[in-house]
Amino acid sequence: MRALFIFLAALFFVGATQLALAQQNAATDASHPPSATALKKSPPFIVFGFVGGWVRHDDIVHSEVQLGASLQKAYGSSVDVEVFENANGRIALKKILTLLDTNHDTTLMPAEKQAAHIILYGHSWGASEAITVARELGKEGIPVLLTIQVDSVTKRHENDTVIPANVAQAANFYQRNGFVHGQNEIRAADSSHTKIIGNYKFNYRTSRYACTEYPWYDHLFARAHTQIECDPNVWKQVEALIREHLPPLPSAAENH
After folding, report:
1. Cα–Cα distance, 79 to 63 (Å, whole number)
2. How far apart are CA 244 and CA 256, in angstroms?
3. CA atoms within 13 A on the CB side of 64
4. CB neighbour list of residue 66: distance below 8 Å, 6 or more residues apart
5. Where are the domains of the chain?
């Protein structure tokens, strides 16, 4: 009987000790919550493109879509690359905010905003939409690394000539031939915050039309505007600018 009493007493002592330790650990955790850094991962690099006119976001004939596919293949999961119709700027904006919310609490903290690595590009109305999305990000206090406009055509109620101050660098590629042509100059709303890399002019007045896979009406009504969109020399420069702002290429193993 005495042995049973000693065994039960020891059992009670061990249980009480474990409970006290658990309560002590809980109090310590409450007074020292995990840091914001511990709760979140680094946000991805984000490269979003916008097609012009009524082009579909997945129409691989168009250079904007080809560039997106090329970057995604090269960088894999280290860069989030997507292409949108220019009418879907709000969808793109919402997706960016979701990607930046790395701790998934539906509220962007200042640290999450400042950790953003965002690049926006587009052609025609898509270029105009890229600047509009950048401007909306600025209202949220979110920086943009780079915007690139290719023959930017202003959409209704948008301003694609003045680059908002949350954009660090901006480049503009344009031509002035034909009825449809882009902005010949972009400027910074605040030159102390935004560097205009350049306004690069291309001339297609005497060039042979080479966009053979584009619809006939593009050739007829927007010949030069289409030529700058399918000009590989333009898009090589666009891609080079984008890659300057991206992390090193991942290894083949990391891409899979």
Report:
1. 19
2. 23
3. 33
4. 60, 235
5. 41-244
- The pair phi, psi for residue 83, each rounded to 5°, is -120, 135
Residue from 73, 9, 28 nearest 47 by CA? 73
Closest alpha carbon to 116 in 146, 90, 74, 85: 146
Contact 44/76 with Cβ under 8 angstroms?
A: no
DSSP E strands in 8-116: the ranges are 45-51, 79-85
Helix spans in 105-222 (H): 110-114, 125-139, 216-221
Rounded distance between C-alpha atoms, residue 119 and residue 117, angstroms: 7
Dihedral (CA of 59, 60, 61, 67) sign = positive
Mind listing the pLDDT tens digit for each residue in 155-171?
999 999 999 999 999 99
Residues with Cβ within 8 Å of residue 12, at least 6 apart in sequence: none
Question: What pTM value is reported for the model?
Answer: 0.82
CATH architecture, range 41-244: 3-Layer(aba) Sandwich (3.40)
Tokens for 94? 């919402």
pLDDT per residue over 78-101, tens digit each?
A: 999 999 999 999 999 999 999 999
